[in-house]
Amino acid sequence: MRNPLLTIAVDRSGDHLVVRAAGEIDMGTAPDLAAALSDAVTAAPAPATIVADFTAVGFLGSAGLSVLVTAHHRGQRAGVRLAVVCPRDGLARRAFEISGLDHLLTVADTLDQALQPQDTP
């Protein structure tokens, strides 16, 4: 998907899907991210992982965080795990920490870390 403020591309990594976002995720661009993640949840075979790669995201607003929470819950119902790649020193990572969503979502530094199997409580 192409938007002047946000570019989204979806790639396959084995059974997993990687939704790569570059640019700004705000209330104007969040619907594009929501559509891409919704399509990924539908397309991913359980127990796959969908990774939202935010390595190139410069801004992540509350609308984008809301989209991720919704995708996380949809994924859980479908048996698909959602993980997010976000550099530790990036502005987007700060949004996860401030909101506390880094405790709900798997937020990793790299794609390899995001694809590691998670222990279920």
UniProtKB/TrEMBL annotation:
Domain STAS: 6-118
InterPro entries in the cross-refs: Anti-sigma_ant (IPR003658), STAS_dom (IPR002645), STAS_dom_sf (IPR036513)
Molecular function as annotated in GO: anti-sigma factor antagonist activity
Recorded family membership: Belongs to the anti-sigma-factor antagonist family.
UniProt protein name: Anti-sigma factor antagonist
Species this chain originates from: Actinokineospora iranica
